[in-house]
Amino acid sequence: MLANAKPIRELHGLTPSDLNDDLLTATEPLVLRGLVARWPAVQASRAGAASADAYLRRFYRDASVVAMLGTREIGGRFFYNQDLSGFNFASVRARLDDVLDELAGQRDNPVPPAIYVGSTTVDTALPGYREENPLDLGPRDALMSVWIGNQTRIAAHYDLPDNLACVTAGRRRFTLFPPDQLENLYVGPLDFTPAGQPISLVDLHQPDLDRFPRFAEAMRHALCAELEPGDAIFIPSMWWHHVEALENFNVLVNYWWRQSPEYMDTPTNALMLSLLSIRDLPREQRRAWQELFRHYVFEAGGATAAHIPVQAQRVLGPISDDAARMLRAQLLKKINR
């Protein structure tokens, strides 16, 4: 079924200095072939997994990481257990060099246990790596993270920030779905997840269309690309993405940033509070609240509060950092009743 996915639009010949606002505020995904091909990390990986491993160890300074470990039976797919009461892997805190040793020891194993270090801050785990492998994102205060492992699969999920992911070792396959395919992805629990974000329950390698029939429609909208070392992919905010690491040693570095004021909380908080306070209202009351959200949130504009004097608009006007702190305190007081 993955073979039916459409290719992601590609741009070639760009360098880190070519990144601009048009690219970094795109609302469609982009593959940027060779964007970081000149990075020393990528050059090291071209000599093989051992060279890529040795390059990472140059920056290691006794940092610990959280590693996800699964038996060979899970086939690299980090997921729930059978009844969704837990997970099919264990999370352990370990020294990064010990994880690299384990990956090296399993490198020639045709069916290895699954080993994965995800979303680890580069400046903490590998100080100095950023300076040798720079990427200028302009004024964006981007979080730079590293992802290391063997042949693993991460279920389709979304991230709130925009995401620029750069493959530095191994190969990765990205399968993306636009946000409007939510209903067709059969998402699991919102408040109990393998790694923080809700995930699709569909196995993309073996989709059970009897159990998940609408997934066939999701695949009609799927986009896919396979990335080599030096390639990058831009994934806009809220796009669902399934990520597969395809070799026995894979390293990816990514940058996350938000196009929003610093005072803003994650919208997930609003979703969870809405489940608590709106979802179970009678139908007509939900429709009334839907109209309120449309008017004050989703289609808000200059006319929304134009009839109120500017000095009296309060939360309906521009929100400052101080106003955000006061509003947050008021909300916490009301929630903790």
From TrEMBL:
<dbReference type="InterPro" id="IPR003347">
    <property type="entry name" value="JmjC_dom"/>
</dbReference>
<feature type="domain" description="JmjC">
    <location>
        <begin position="115"/>
        <end position="272"/>
    </location>
</feature>
<protein>
    <submittedName>
        <fullName>Cupin-like domain-containing protein</fullName>
    </submittedName>
</protein>
<dbReference type="InterPro" id="IPR041667">
    <property type="entry name" value="Cupin_8"/>
</dbReference>
<dbReference type="Pfam" id="PF13621">
    <property type="entry name" value="Cupin_8"/>
</dbReference>
